[in-house]
Amino acid sequence: MGAGRLYPAVAVGGFRRYATYRAATAAGVFTNTVFGLILVYTYLALWDEKPHLGGYDQAQAVTYVWLGQALYSTLALQGGGVEKELMARIRTGEIAVDLYRPADLQLWWLASDMGRAVFQILGRGVVPFVFGALVFDMAVPDDPFAWAAFAVALLPAMVVSFGIRYLAALSVFWLMDGTGVSQAVMVLGIFCSGMVLPLNAFPGVLGDIVRALPWAAQLQMPADVLLGRTAPVAAYAFQAAWAVALLAAGRLVQAAATRRVVVQGG
Amino acid sequence: MAVDGGPGGAADGITGGAAGGRTGDGAVGGPEGAASAVRGDAARGGPSDGAFIELDRVEKVFDVRRRTGFLKRERRRVRAVDDLSFTVARGETVGYIGPNGAGKSTTIKMLTGILTPSGGRLRVAGIEPSRERTRLAQRIGVVFGQRTTLWWDLPLVDSYRLMHRMYRIPDARYRANLDRLVEHLDLGPLLDTPVRQLSLGQRMRGDIAAALLHDPEVLYLDEPTIGLDVISKARVRDFLRELRDERGTTVLLTTHDLQDIEQLCSRVMVIDHGRLMYDGPLAGLHEAGESERILVVDLDRELPPVDAPAPARVVKVEGPRQWLAFPSSVSAAPLVARIAAEYPLVDLSVREPDIEAVIARMYAGQGNRAASRPPTSIA
């Protein structure tokens, strides 16, 4: 099976491409650490006023903050993964080059984004999290199974993240420019994935809605699995359902989009 | 010279000639002696097995919606390719030229299967491209002068390893092909260089190698020498000539550079407004276009127009610089010698006619035809 070796090769390439930009990675680590500090002090102030907000105690809230910073670039919570490149390729017509290849467009970009995501766990995730654990009182489990369950939850989280951004990128086939879509992805991502506040802390109907949206599968689910606040199987089922739905939608849109290829670079 | 909308009489003779001149090994089966005759026949066009690329009355119509006012939209049909018929024999190298927006890219997109024709019949290696795009992709190579298939951030060799997987090239064949391409395209020192650090000429050679690793039977080249300096152009052309002569790869070459065509193609097809305007040897195109070259001379001071022997004539004077036009079919040497002998010549250069100019003249020569073309053309 050639395809069985192609997409891993694409993923390895995606990993290595991001690994070449060391200064950018270092800058990202610094930024995530600083943002983590700001958020931690904000959360501590908030949790002083409202203890057990969203069901978290202070240590859990602090852990949630550092998880968010650690997964911020891996899950491209504000966008900024391979979809930027895909948008540019669609806009310039270079996407035609990708279509000439005997490879599936969606799997190709998924593999590439997985490679990127795995690099960014290591390159941008570990340091801010360890920093947080050293400086603050965190609710980090000792149980290796909790960590394993967390690691498993990251995989569908990455796929859901890709699924959202792939749909956003494909919209450029119709819109011709990705700036507006990227901004929508960013705003929705910050709000709906729980980067501002844990989704558990959202009140009433609004909370029910955001916890049912695909963004909840990205940060909230893995965090709750690690903090022991949800059964891993329930989290996986929720994540997998959204992953499948988004990939299927991506496939449909891709089929419609490639029929339009022509228009650019005619 | 037959300048005809269809691939008429002129094309047939040329196609046969090109196939006969090919030195590739027996791509067409059969005993060695009979093979050349078979190829000659097959190449004569028509729906025989020898026609590797085959278009029969192919058209592509796009619906373009344009906003004409508040909430008002106008639908307009654009014929990007209109009633296009031609065949290319296995092993032939054909120049496919035309002005921007003529329908070249649309044709190539249909040939590779990413676009479905609106009408007509199209076959590449017996395959209908749009139905079996992935299967066909194993047999074709595509190179764009202005777009790269290489991984921008990574060393060149990483992109080749990816091709290895993508085209499922057996390991031994991959090694052999890579070694051969690296040697012929002089890529050895560049393999570990990130693509973004390559010069345009180096990147182009890298792209050509990437397109050939899986031994495609046909190579589509879209402006392979665009933006390259003279030395890089020569290198790319040398390699393509070798490819044509030694491996018998079928090549369809799109370019704006007449010299690419002159040096590589025995046959040229001109497309404009989605229609085939000319199909035959390049010499015939020059005749049809009565094209002219321009000799630019710098004299050491301002002088009245030089007295050039006919048919050369001065077309422009600007200070000490003068422009002389003379037919492409005539050597520049006597003209240069005469001016050098009689005038204080400081510097000179010869400008080859570009394809646009040749085509423009072709139209001018047959104004009625051009005028009578239906107005359903590209915006």
UniProtKB/TrEMBL annotation, chain A:
InterPro entries per UniProt: ABC-2_transporter-like
Chain ranges passing through the membrane: 21-44, 64-82, 121-140, 146-173, 185-206, 226-250
Source species, domain of life: Bacteria
Record keywords, A-Z: Membrane, Transmembrane, Transmembrane helix
Protein name: ABC-2 family transporter protein
Source species of the chain: Streptomyces actuosus
